[in-house]
Amino acid sequence: MNFSEIPKTELHLHLEGAAPPDFIRRLAAEKGVGMDGVFDADGAYVWSDFVEFLRTYERACEVLKTPEDFGRLVSAVLKEQMVHGVIYTEMFLAPDFCGGGDLVAWKEYLAAMSEAAEASAVEVRFIPTCVRHFGPEQARVSARLSAETAGGLVTGFGMGGDESAHSAADFAYAFDMAREAGLGLTSHAGEVEGPSSVVETMDALKVSRIGHGVRSIEDPALVRRLADEGVVLEVCPGSNIALGIFTDYKAHPIAALRDAGVLLTVSTDDPPYFHTDMSAEYRGLHAALGWKRDDFDAINRAAMNAAFCDEDTKARMLARFNGA
Ligand code: HPA
Ligand code: ZN
Asked: What is the structure's pLDDT at 324?
């Protein structure tokens, strides 16, 4: 099977976390920004655990300063996604890194990123995300910027960052604001923290999708609830394995969750940090679990049905997958 040729939908990809190391190095050199400790001798991002991963991630983001930098980043990431057959992608991006909370500046960043996205053959939507460990106040600022710019390519709102910081309920105001603006909602939970973090997120933030959510497998009642309510998990197996949450694809609960009727999708999260890409994910699932083209088409249809886009776009994308 040629895994890169299978058409794919990706719903969980952090724009800044998808930055190719060469891209960040080149930009740092252009701007004279020091990147000591960000890359190892082979040129890969350095980190050893989740907290260090977030720290390196934020260091690398320091080089991304102007709207033009972000436009160039969108182009570089989409070029990479096309190599792996991605036809529809939703990108998380943190307004915290795009103009420091100022609406006029945010609109300039968004314009540059939208222009890059619209020039690509990949169908793109943006999901501005708040960063959990930056706290609820900053999350409200991100939600307000997202609500003010809802429409166009901004179709969702989410939350990433350190799952152990604050409680989900602290972010209810931000998510309510985003919901009222008509944005689709997703939040990271049940990746680093256990099943109770997923329950709290569903109850407090009323999201239709959960970023990761894989540790839900530890609570059979929660697995049933996810299946009953049709909440979709954005599963990123390679990321989970790189962070040591599961040892390998065979030990990953993706098959058990799917067999229990939980709707799920497959994405890469932060591909260069986790040494993965969409082709590698499909190859891993095929090798460990025997997943074939039919399984991948079903995953992609589930992803498109859960996508934060208009019905026409959904129908157009769904027609690209077998069995639609
Ligand atoms: N998990 C949580 N927060 C993040 C990630 C991630 O993989 N990438 C960027 N922010
Ligand atoms: Zn993520």
From this structure: 60
Distance CA 207, CA 252 (A): 24
Please, what are the domains in the chain?
3-19+64-318 (3.20.20.140)
Cα separation of the two ends of the chain: 21
φ, ψ dihedrals at 206, nearest 5°:
50, 50
Ligand 1 pocket test: pick from 269, 273, 275 the residue with the most ligand atoms within 8 Å of its Cβ.
Answer: 269
Q: What is the pLDDT of residues 152-189, one digit of tens each?
A: 999 999 999 999 999 999 999 999 999 999 999 999 99
CA of 270 to the centre of ligand 2 (A): 7
Q: How far is the CA of 296 from the centre of ligand 2 (A)?
A: 21
- pLDDT tens digits along 222-259: 999 999 999 999 999 999 999 999 999 999 999 999 99
SS3 291: coil
Q: What are 45's strand-pairing partners?
A: 39
Catalytic machinery residues: 191
**Band (34; pLDDT cuts 50, 70, 90):** very high
* φ/ψ (deg, to 5) at 287: -65, -40
The number of the ligand 1 atom at minimal distance from the alpha carbon of 269 is 7
Amino acid sitting at position 19: A
CB within 6 Å of ligand 1 — which residues? 14, 17, 57, 160-161, 188, 239, 269-270
For 27, the enclosing helix (H) or strand (E) is helix 21-31
State the distance from the centre of ligand 2 to the C-alpha of 37, rounded, in angstroms: 22
pLDDT for 114 beyond 90: yes
Centroid of chain to Cα 282: 17
**Angle at which helices 103-118 and 67-83 cross, to 10°:** 30
